[in-house]
Fold this sequence. Notes:
Blueprint: E1 2-5, E2 20-25, E3 29-36, E4 40-46, E5 51-58, E6 64-67, E7 73-74, E8 80-85, E9 91-97, E10 101-108, H1 115-120, E11 125-128, H2 132-144, H3 152-172, H4 186-198, H5 206-212, H6 217-228, H7 232-250, H8 255-261, H9 267-278, H10 282-289
Antiparallel strand pairs: 1-4, 2-3, 3-10, 4-9, 5-8, 5-10, 6-7, 6-9, 8-11
Helix pairs in contact: 2-3, 4-5, 5-6, 8-9
Amino acid sequence: xxxxxxxxxxxxxxxxAVISARVxxxxxxxxxxxxxxxDSTVRWNVAAPDISLMWVRDKGSKARFxxxxxxxxxxxxxxxxxxxxPEGSDARGEVxxxxxxxxxxxxxxxxxxxxxxxxxxxxxxxxxxxxxxxRAFDGLAAELAxxxxxxxxxxxxxxxxxxxxxxxxxxxxxxxxxxxxTGLAPWQLRRARDMLREHxxxxxxxxxxxxxxxxxxGHFSRAFKASTGVPPHQWLMLERVAxxxxxxxxxxTPLVHVAGMCGFAxxxxxxxxxxxxxGCSPGVWRREHWxx
Length: 292
């Protein structure tokens, strides 16, 4: 969804003189199209479970596309660029420009797509919307410029056509993966690790950690895994196992107390997790690594 925002010194973007917006909806598809003729910022977000396609065409405005937690990406003047988000994605960001630019958001209910199509659209992507996809967006822009309401049948047909072009691009010459799939910024990773460690003996609030990193919980979880190789929950389990190793090697603390100190539900849970990661039970590990 798009949320126009005024920049300092710029008139309200809800003014027709500043931004022109058209929305076309059907039962399974929502299309939002914006023409931004002055300095402006448009905030956007995609949310599960929709399949989403963002498109930006720069008309010489030095437009930049930004995804939360990532560096801004310049949009080449005169060309269109797209960012695709598969089913279950959760991301947000903004588009800025110093002059004219168009942007569109296509949000599709994944239940209407055949399984083979969803399989071809399983990864986030980004690339140039030249060729068929560019012409598809030109057709959408022309249709939305008409004074009559866009027919639901056209809306769904157009969305399927656009997604078909994206799937074809992915199977032919895969476009670069969107930076949506990249990891956390250094400050985000450092803060996330610190917050998770603060609650190593309990249940950390992942939503609070994600908010601190200025991300949605879905985006945070994927970016954290991209940075560390494991999801937040598994990373915390590894930290708990490492803490338990220290206690087992340097103290005679009973296993039931070690389990509680390291945030495990009980001794049985502790033994199962420890054995899965270390290949032996805590008792066996202690006998082999006892350092007193």
